[in-house]
Amino acid sequence: MLEKIKKVDGVIVVILVLLMAVSITSIYSVTAGTELNGSHIQMLKYYGLGFIAFIGLSFVDYRLLLKNAFYIYMFGIGLLVLVSFTESKNGAKGWLELPVVHLSLQPAELFKLILILLLASLLIWKNKDKLTFWRDIVPLTLITLVPFGIVILQNDLGNALSYAVILMGVLWIGNIKFSHALIGLVLIGGSAFAGITSYIQYHDQAVSFLEDKIGRDHLVKRFDPWLVPELASKDASYHTKNAQLAIASGGMVGEGYMEGTSVQAGKVPYTYSDAIFVQIAEEFGFLGSAGVLLLFFILIHRMVLIALECKQRGGPFIIVGVVAMLLYQILENIGAFIGLMPLTGITLPFISFGGTSILINMSSMGIVMSVHLYGGEEEDDLPVYPRYSPPPKLL
């Protein structure tokens, strides 16, 4: 155990502590003296639980999780189905109340890590062989589509899209054929382009379909400010328009801690959670925003180095899945407030207020650290998938 402790990646630990400091101070800035006063203390408690999860999972051999990934997946599906029968919150069904620890658990967040584990456990069997379309890509895609569909029905577009991003990242490192990857990119890119173009050109028909036919009016409020801001209602564009004004007013060095004109006046909703980047940009400016992005860059860089040093097949799959998850959240969250992406409610990793988000992200880092601590050992108990033997059942 002492040898494992000595091998802990100190850079990752320091980055996590710095991100915690950014989170606590940012949340305090926008909640002090409001009805949310004390949220920074609650976030500190969440981080305490998060570090417990981080330390605990760091010293558990990640291969134990891979061996039981299917059962964990079924448990996660059960939670997603269960939450479908709960009451809506902010227009979406996604929370289970845990009164003992005073935490609202969001199964859709938890399932991101569960999906990474299952996909990694299945790709281990390939033993560096090229992925085939029908025997590998289709089953893995279907496994991802199950939670994707459930979460879409719960009006949680942001987390649903994260499952697709995780799948693409894991398939890429899983040795997908270049032709399959190219076809997939063309299909996804073409579909996205066609969908965006159609929404803009046939806006009235699209709005009628979303609102009247399928009852998804919340999608109109998210797509209009992004694609056709001139047609968006005042209510729909209020969040993103004020966020962009606040970010622009921050300039190079910001307006000062707890001095942000827009965020302190409450003109930007959810600055303690989804829109916390707006607080950082307005009060600390471009330099402060760049500093936060630098912390994320160093964290991801360390994770990539761990994946390259790992001698086992499962470790790199897990790390790439976690990297894909974090990159998507960072790009979607920040992009939504500068007009590059639609607003989906995705939190900024490690900084936005939220118990489930912190626990899942810290748990993910714990598993990454486990790969670092145990990934240098030679594989001796994982099955090897012979090239010409029948493939394992993925479903």
TrEMBL record:
It is a multi-pass membrane protein. Its main location: membrane. One of its GO terms (cellular component) is plasma membrane. It is found in: Membrane. It holds the Pfam family FTSW_RODA_SPOVE. One of its GO terms (biological process) is cell division. One of its GO terms (molecular function) is lipid-linked peptidoglycan transporter activity. It comes from the Bacteria. The chain crosses the membrane at residues 12-31, 43-62, 69-85, 105-125, 137-154, 160-176, 183-202, 284-308, 315-331, 337-360. Keywords: Cell shape, Membrane, Transmembrane, Transmembrane helix. The keyword Transmembrane applies. This is Cell cycle protein.
